[in-house]
Each structure stands twice: as C-alpha cells, then as structure tokens.
Amino acid sequence: MKILVCIKQVPDMESRFKPDSQGTWFSEADLAFRMNEYDEYAVEQAVGLKELLGDSADITVLSIGPDRVVEAIKKALAMGCDRGVHIPDAAVHGKDPWQVASAITAFSQGKGFDLIFTGMQSQDRGSAQVGITVAELLGYACASTVVGFEYLEGSVVVRRELEGGGKAVVRMPLPALVTCQLGLNVPRYPTLPNIMKAKKKEISTVSLGELLKEGPLAETTSFYPPAKSGGGIILEGDVAELADRLIGILKEKTTVMR
Amino acid sequence: MKALLVCEYREGKLLDTSYELLAFAERLGADTAIVLVGDAANVPRYSGKVHLAHVAIYGEYNPDLHKELILAAVDRENPDYIIFQHSSYGWDLAPRLAAKLRLAQVSEVVAIAGDGFEVGCCNAKMRRTVKPSTAKAVITIQTGAFTPQGEPQGSPTVEMLDVAAAGKVEFIGYEPAEEKDIDLGKAEVIVSAGRGIGKKDNVPIIAALAKAFGGELGASRPVVDAGWVEHSHQVGTTGQTVSPKLYVACGISGAIQHLAGMKKSDFIVAVNKDKDAPIGEVADVLIVADVMPFAQALTARLHK
To answer: Terminus of chain A with fewer CB atoms < 10 Å: N or C?
Structure first.
C-alpha cells in the first residue's frame, strides 16, 4: 500500500494579519508557522492506517513552499510518515489552487499511490479545492469532508459530514483520495524517540519547474480586513470592572437580568 | 451574461438554499438556468428552465455522475458562470467541474467586488478579492451571504437530462445527527465555550456562568470534537441553530459555521483575548480579556 499525504504550512490563526507590500497576501513578518490543522488529521489517518497494515504500507508526505515548510514535513515524519518530499517554492502563495493541484498531480503520476490524504482546506486560503482537483486530474475516486474512515480490503468506507450534523456513508475503490475534516481523529503528538527516529528519515527535493507546466486560472488582486459591520462596543481593562460594566449594559439592553 | 445554478436536493427534498443561488445571480445581473438532480414534484418555484435528472436513477450523492449531468447542462446552456452553494454538495462538486472544464474556481464568495469576488481567508479574519483569469468561471457562494428578496414564485419549464456514465463512489446511506437531549432552542440565555477556554477542566467554570444567568451551556465545534463537551450542546452548522435573548461566546473565535448557528441571537457578548477575532463582527459587546478570569469574575458578580 503506497500512501501520499499532502500538507501545507500555515500561520498561527491567532495572529494579526497585515497585507504584504503587494497588498495581495499577508506579510510574513512576526508570524509563526505550523502544519495546517486539517492536514494533521490527514497525517494521523495515514499513520493510523499504516499501524493497521504493518510495514507493507509506505507513507510519503509532500509539501510545497519555502524552506520553513521542512519543519512541517519533519513533524509529519515524527508522527510516523516514512519519507518526505519538499518542493521548494518561495512564492507558493502566488500560485492558485489549480497550479498547486497540477504540481501535486505531476508528482504523483506513475508513482502508484493507492491512497492520497489531504486536508479538506487550508486554514489560510480556505478554498477547499486542491485535494479534489488532484483526484479529478488523476482519475481517482474522491470523497471530501471526511469524518470517518475505514479500510476494507481494496476499498475504503468513509463518512462525509453534512450540514445539520448528519453523515453520508460512501464506499470507494482504490485508488482514492479523501479530504480530511475536523472530527476525523485526534492527531498524536510526536514523542521524543520518534522525533529522533525521524531525523534519519529521508527528505528529498523535487524542483517545481519539473512538475508545474500550468499557468494560473485565477489571481488574488487584494488582501484586506473585513469591513466592520459596526455597532459593537469593545471593552478592555480589569476583569472585575469589566464584569460590572457588562452587567450594567445587560440591564439596559436586555431583559435577562430581571 | 448567463449563470447555470446547481440546486441541491437531499433526503427527498429540494434545499431552500437553492434560492440563494438565484439571489446571487440577480446581484450579478445574469440570466439563469437551473440544473437539479431531483424529482419533478420538487422543482424550485422559478420562472425559467430547469434541467432535471431523476434522483431515482442518479442518486443523491454520486459525484462522478452528477458532474457528467452538470456538464451536459453546461453543453446546452453555455453559461459564463456555474454556481454552487459552498456546502458539502457544492464544494465537493465544484472543483471536479472546474478541473474538467479547465476553468477558474472561486470558493465561498461573500460579496461581488469591483474586479472580482470577495472571499474570506485566514479563518475568516481577513478577506481577499479573487479574479478569474478565464473568461468563464465556477463559483461557490457562502450560505447566508445572499438572501433572497421576497417569496420565490413561478413554475419552471422542465427539460430532462440523461447521461450514460458510471460513478466510482458508491453511496451506502445516511447516518442521522446525534440525538439532541438538550434543546438549546428554548433557552433564554446560552453561554458557550470555545477552544479559547484552554482545557476541559475549565468547562465547569463556563457551565457555572451559564447557570448563574439561568441559562444553558453551549459549545463550539472544536470543543465538542475534543470531547470536552457533549455534541448535544454544539451550536453551529453541524449542531443546533439558536437565537436566545442573550448569547455569551467565551473563547470562540467565530468560524462561519459557528456564526451561522448563533448570529440571530437578540444580544451577543463575546469574550476573547484576540481583539480581531471574527466573532467581534457579530458581537454587540466584545470583552477583550483572558476568558477564564473574566468568566469567574462575572459569575461572582451575578451571585452578589
């Protein structure tokens, strides 16, 4: 069983975002980066499957981006992936989902991956396109927004999350791609021995130029904060004082304090 | 300009969000046609053409087949835009169509911007304008962002759609949402816990604040998924939709899925240490503070 996991590195979402000098994406100054949360579920699911199947499973983890993304690859290796692939690109934020998917597809072609795991979306761009597009380009069966996963000899049964909390249960033959949603599993923390072991695992580099022959189909023309809908009051200060002020407001504006 | 609207049908019913597609097309100033995998008794109230494929033949979820059906409708209509809801159905199908047709896709549009479409990014904290480079494009729109004006009317001209194709994905069945043993819909006050409360041990402190208000405990999705609070307390798209007299969001950043479940509350108080958290957009009062000390101070104050 050959497994590919595609991961992205994104900024901590608690950060304050400011436009970069071109005004089309965020400035990276002062931002701390980590593995995209949805991709952690993808890594965990792949590693969980390998534990079930034993050493016959081999997991490749791939990431496109500047040198810092090697940190995310190392984390995935420490969680249990077998080998890493880094496709260096300092300007990956300027590539549209079509280009990213095209590069992943070119990398995957002819490698015979039975299963590909991706996050359902990235936390920063949030387009929810790349995984599904890769499946379409490779001709793989695909289910998105997966919150349940079971491997059954030659096929997978997955649960897709629906609005309202219900789920759709579907079966797919291999090769298949699933995009992973919050709730699928609880990603493990890499242990110290596994972090040490991961240092010996191979991280190879593939040049983007060899893989990407496609131009963009869409472009980001500006990046900006949402227009404030207004009306809200912002209160700061000592907590006891804030509690008093809030009670005063609630007495005035609502009927719940009677 | 013409738009092909892909309506949604689930568990024997046309989804009401289908009318939001029409509202969006109207903002675009586009002529419309609809494509639906459904049944003739459940077509939208609409004066135009509906390309209808029988759900009995093609199933409610069979993405490869639905893609082929939509492509057949695209052939007939030659639309400039193919428009979906950004939903479990729409975000799953849209990239398949876009890849097949080699068109730009713009995901989860919240507004029409000058030279393109406005979409959220960075967990809804920021926005960007995305401009398709292709002459035609596939678009998904955020649920709730384009509300229809007035009651939909009319009866469509129906043209049947059929394709000969096989799908790779086999639909087995639906699993219902977990039973809700707590009806948050009846609560006058809901105090909800989000990831910002830090740890499971802090849940009782938020529950105590809810009790001090005479209300119920709510929760955001990450807190439920982490097993800190039971699913029956979850507020949002995959939980309950509520509109109490007072909603207090403690340590909830305000993902769109959560906002959709509580933004109609009469009065919203958000407690968050991040002044820029998107929950601030819907809050009447945003308390910028560490959540736990504030919750304890407020509970103490209510008991006075």
So the answer is: C
* Choice between B177 and B226, residue whose per-residue pLDDT is larger: B226
Cβ distance B260 to B252 under 8 Å?
A: no
Residue pointed to by tokens 């193919």: B82
| Contacts with A132 from chain B: Cβ below 8 Å | 91-92, 95-96, 99
Class for domain B184-303, per CATH?
A: alpha beta
Residue-level pLDDT at B208: 96
Give me the residue from A16, A160, A169 closest to B88, CB to CB: A160
For chain B, the domains span: 2-160, 184-303
Mutate to test the interface with B, among A122, A132, A245 (most CBs of B within 10 A): A132
pLDDT by residue (tens digit) across B102-145? Answer: 999 999 999 999 889 999 999 888 999 999 999 999 999 999 89
Cβ atoms A120, A128 nearer than 8 A: yes
Range of the domain at A42: 2-211
Residue A229 pLDDT exceeds 70? no
| Closest in A127, A171, A240 to B297, CB measured | A240
Judge whether A229 lies within some domain.
no
Digit-coded pLDDT (tens) for B181-209: 678 888 999 999 999 999 999 999 999 99
With contact defined as beta carbons under 8 Å apart, do A219 and B133 qualify? Answer: yes
Residue A225 belongs to some domain of the structure: no
Mean pLDDT of chain A: 95
Q: How far is CA A239 from CA A40, A244, A251, B215, B298, in A?
A: 36, 9, 18, 22, 8
Half-sphere exposure of B291 (CA within 13 A, CB side): 27
Query: Looking at beta carbons, which residues of chain A come within 8 Å of B278?
Result: 226
Q: What is the CATH number of the domain that holds A122?
A: 3.40.50.620
Residue B23 scores a pLDDT above 70: yes
B61, A124: Cβ pair inside 8 Å?
Answer: no
What length does chain A have? 258
Q: Matching CATH topology for B2-160 and B184-303?
A: yes
- Tell whether the model's pLDDT for residue A237 goes beyond 70: yes
Say if strands B31-38 and B2-6 run parallel, antiparallel, or are unpaired: parallel
The ipTM (two decimal places) reads: 0.92
pLDDT of residue B174: 96
Q: Which residue of B has its CA nearest to A144?
A: B92
Asked if residue A146 is part of any domain, the answer here is: yes
Contact status of B253 with chain A (Cβ, < 8 Å): yes
A31, pLDDT greater than 70: yes
B246 vs A250: CB contact, 8 Å cut-off?
A: yes
Contact A17 B132 (CB under 8 A): no
Superfamily covering domain B2-160: HUPs (3.40.50.620)
Q: Which residue of B has its CA nearest to A249?
A: B285
Number of domains in chain A: 1
